[in-house]
Design a protein that fits this description.
CATH topology of the largest domain: Aminopeptidase
Number of strands: 13
Largest sheet: 13 strands, mixed
Order of helices and strands: EEHHEEHEHEHEHEHHEEEHEHEHH
Strand content: 25-35%
Distance between the termini: 40 Å
Number of helices: 12
Structural class: alpha+beta
CATH architecture of the largest domain: 3-Layer(aba) Sandwich
Strand order of the largest sheet: 1-2-3-4-5-6-13-7-12-11-10-9-8
Helix content: 25-40%
CATH superfamily of the largest domain: Gcn5-related N-acetyltransferase (GNAT)
């Protein structure tokens, strides 16, 4: 079901999309729009089918609430959208997350430079004012998206890159050395591997140590709440990959019960030719001993054994994470896309939108 409200004299309107109440016609329109926008922003990439997209949008997210907002023309055609994600009340660390909202979306290429993005940003500002949010975070990888966010007044706070590696270029001898060095008796580490799923009882014991490694990842100047793994997020994710078909892989090197190094990755039937590398981390006291190389090599061996159809690995790295980037270059990873994380506060956003108001345009005329 859509809640629609007038936007401005250009006959644009704003509507809120409720995935639980939307009609079949509203769903068909939304799915066609999302498919088009995905093709515009990620040309040449494989796209999930509409059934998967609909299921993903409908799925309950235990830690966050997402508002989905569309901009329409006078005929009801979808021209742009903005999604606003906030921490769900009464969840862990809610107070630390409370000032922040994550925003993502865009405008169709054929409909840009008509003020549609500004209309959508007014919805963001309204939510921030209503809920007491102080910081909105966007990610952009296309030049036009970066330019728009800079014009709005958002500041780039962090840069990352998506790196990709072809399995055909792997050096098997080097990987065997990396595995042997990490498992050398001198280290005294115990190897633990999970393939397919990690039992929830074990995951529960890993949330704190893995969160500590995640929190230690570089995020440059990004204002943010603590980065944590949440058991409820894993429950939701496992339910999703149960529906679509997929596996979660976890490789651990343990010093007694302490996590010295970790590498986790996933595979799913939507993209059967690729492996998605997730967290690779080494405890500070164990760095400089080749453990990151070792857990990566162990992970690659595991995935190749279970999924010989995989030809590509995909990972995301902070541009300031020189040690991990150096390891990935040795493996054969090359940059595929660069992403910027931008942030803006309510006052800067308000100042931009005030300058774009009808009254200010008339004053300049």
């Amino acid at each position: 079901m859509l809640e629609t409200r007038a936007a401005d004299a250009r006959q644009f309107s704003i509507s809120v999309f409720d995935p639980q109440q939307a009609s079949a016609e509203e769903w068909a329109q939304a799915l066609a729009y999302w498919r088009l926008r995905s093709e515009e922003d990620y040309p040449g990439e494989p796209q999930p089918d509409d059934a998967h997209t609909a299921q993903n949008v409908r799925q309950h997210t235990p830690m966050h609430v997402v508002s989905r907002i569309f901009a329409r023309d006078a005929h009801g055609n979808l021209l742009g959208n903005i999604n606003l994600g906030v921490r769900r009340e009464a969840t862990s660390d809610y107070e630390a997350h409370a000032p922040f909202v994550n925003a993502w979306g865009g405008v169709r290429q054929s409909s840009r430079r008509q003020g549609i993005a500004s209309l959508l940003l007014r919805e963001l500002l309204a939510l921030m004012d209503a809920q007491g949010k102080t910081t909105a975070t966007f990610n952009a990888h296309l030049p036009e998206g970066r330019a728009f966010l800079s014009a709005v007044g958002a500041l780039e706070k962090h840069r990352s890159m998506e790196n990709r590696m072809a399995f055909s270029g792997l050096d098997d001898d080097a990987l065997a050395r990396w595995r042997a060095e990490a498992l050398a008796p001198a280290h005294g580490l115990r190897l633990e591997i999970h393939a397919g799923r990690v039992p929830f009882e074990r995951l529960a014991t890993l949330m704190a140590p893995l969160s500590a490694l995640l929190e230690d990842a570089p995020t440059t100047g990004l204002s943010r709440p603590p980065m944590r793994f949440e058991l409820e997020d894993f429950r939701a994710w496992y339910a999703e990959i149960d529906r679509r078909g997929g596996e979660h892989f976890l490789v651990l090197l343990l010093d007694g019960d302490e996590v010295a190094a970790v590498c986790d990755a996933s595979w799913n039937q939507l993209y059967p030719d690729r492996m998605f590398q997730r967290l690779t981390g080494v405890a500070r006291s164990w760095r400089g001993k080749g453990l990151a190389k070792g857990v990566k090599a162990l992970m690659l061996q595991l995935v190749r054994e279970r999924h010989p159809e995989v030809v590509m690995a995909v990972t995301q790295n902070a541009e300031v994470n020189a040690p991990m980037l150096a390891i990935n270059r040795q493996l054969g990873f090359v940059p595929h896309r660069h992403d910027g994380a931008y942030q803006i506060g309510t006052e800067s956003l308000r100042a931009f939108l005030s300058a774009r108001s009808p009254a200010s345009r008339e004053a300049r005329a």
